[in-house]
Amino acid sequence: MKNVTDSFVSLGHWPSAGSFGFNTDILATNPINLSVVLGVLIFFGKGVLSDLLDNRKQRILNAIRNSEELRGGAIEQLEKARARLRKVKMEADQYRVNGYSEIERERLNLINSTYNTLEQLENYKNETIHFEQQRAINQVRQRVFQQALQGALGTLNTCLNNELHLRTISANIDMLGAMNERTD
Questions:
Q1: What are the residue ranges of helices labelled H in the chain?
Q2: Is 21 inside a domain boundary?
Q3: Domain count, the chain
Q4: Which among 23, 32, 56, 116 is least buried, having the fewest CB atoms inside 10 angstroms?
Q5: Which residue spans traverse the membrane (predicted)?
Q6: Three-state SS for 17?
């Protein structure tokens, strides 16, 4: 933090006060560069991100609507099954002597299968909603990561010149040589 304040304090002490110059102290300029990059990312990425989220929200809402329609169809089937159950009950009264237990089993199987179908449809709806939410979150994460990576690469490419690049490589080679000497 001292380097940042020193770079601002030293602005008044430049020998060429009337001309334009570059601050080559990379530690002092990084916070400024990072704040500019983050500001640009937030400004331009906000619209893209909100569009992606709105599109994903519409897809999820469509999936919910489809699930609700399926649920409505299942309820309609349940009503038909109940009507059939009432019919079966009337027939059961007629055939009680011949096979009351068989009819009762059919009624229970019908009710169980209907409730199982409703549970499966409800589970499918919940899984679909969860899956769509996860997919939306993953897509947004990937998009933000890609944009941040592109911004960082752009910043690195604009900040590194050949001399600085060669000095960085030389320093890294020296560090590797020092590490090899320690291990020997």
A1: 2-9, 26-94, 96-159, 162-183
A2: no
A3: 1
A4: 116
A5: 32-49
A6: coil
Query: What is the tens place of the pLDDT at every residue in 38-70?
Result: 888 888 878 887 888 899 999 999 999 998 999
Alpha carbon distance, N-terminus to C-terminus of the chain: 38
Q: What pLDDT digit, counting tens, does each position of 17-38 carry?
A: 556 666 666 666 677 777 888 8
Residue (of 110, 125, 139) closest to 66 by Cα position: 125
Task: Supply the DSSP string of 77-104, one letter for each residue.
Answer: HHHHHHHHHHHHHHHHHHTHHHHHHHHH
Residue 128 makes CB contacts below 8 A (sequence gap 6+) with 63, 67
Pairwise CA distance, residues 14 & 146, whole Å: 39
Lowest mean pLDDT segment, chosen from 45-54, 74-83, 117-126, 150-159: 150-159
Task: Provide the CB-side half-sphere exposure for 99 (13 A, CA).
Answer: 7
**Can you tell me the distance from the alpha carbon of 69 to that of 88, in angstroms, rounded to the nearest whole number?**
28
- Residue 24 included in any domain: no
| 178 has a pLDDT exceeding 90 | no
* Residue the block writes with tokens 């990937």: 142
Residue 12 lies in a domain: no
